[in-house]
Amino acid sequence: MVLRISSPRMSQRTVQHVYALLLDAYGPRGWWPGESPFEVIVGAILVQNTAWRNVERTIERLKREKLLRPRPLWETSTEQLQELLRSTGYFRIKERRLRNFLDYLMTCHRGSLKRMFSLDHDRLRGELLAINGIGPETADSILLYAGDLPSFVVDTYTQRVFKRHGWLPPAAGYHETQRYFERRLPAEAAIYNEYHALLVHVGHHHCRKRPKCAGCPLECLLPKSGIVEL
């Protein structure tokens, strides 16, 4: 998804300019991995505080056991599900979080993701956030990557990239950052999806805890005084 821009000099164009630079450097990322919306949701819940490779192992095991569907997973015993989730770390906590979502899906939507995603965006987001164990990043990941709904996902890389360049104040929280992006981008899921993936990529390779600015596609936009210390 290409955004046509003119100059980055105007502050309201900064977000689009960053997107264009990253897309030109890296190309479309084709994110998030998942063969079905339900798989994406399970992954979004399990990836909290762990590496994605650990989640992949668990998802493959769920597939082998023919449990990667709402009702079979919901009907799985606590002990069995905890054992299946062991490789994701904090498996007891994650079993409860996943169970909380499944209880909501089965009770409120008869196990149908189609019914769930037919809700108004703001109502559904509120209902997801009301589920114990689902925070803003997980809820927005579910909306965007599983539901194809325009809900911009903010993560550590998003915050780090934009705060270090001085485009966001150091104290900006999740919702302030999300509003910053959503007010400056077309409300299109494809753009939100691609942008988040690009920020994750540049964050992983350059905007780490110890930044590696040399060769970064955004190096040309660094403040003259240097990166903002976080």
Question: Mind explaining what this structure looks like?
Answer:
The chain starts with 13 loop residues before the first helix and ends in a 25-residue tail after the last helix. By secondary structure, it is mostly helical. The longest helix has 19 residues, at 91-109. Mean pLDDT is 93; it is low at 4-10. 55% of the residues lie in helices and 0% in strands.
Largest sheet: none
Number of helices: 12
**Gross morphology:** globular
Radius of gyration: 19 Å
Run of helices and strands: HHHHHHHHHHHH
Give the strand content: under 5%
Average predicted local confidence, pLDDT? 93
The number of strands is 0
- Going by helix content, strand content and strand pairing, the class is mainly alpha
| Unreliable parts | 4-10
Instruction: Report, as a whole number of angstroms, the end-to-end distance.
Output: 31 Å
State the share of residues found in helices, binned by percent.
55-70%
Topology:
Elements: H1 14-26, H2 37-46, H3 52-64, H4 70-74, H5 78-84, H6 91-109, H7 113-117, H8 121-129, H9 136-146, H10 156-164, H11 174-182, H12 189-205
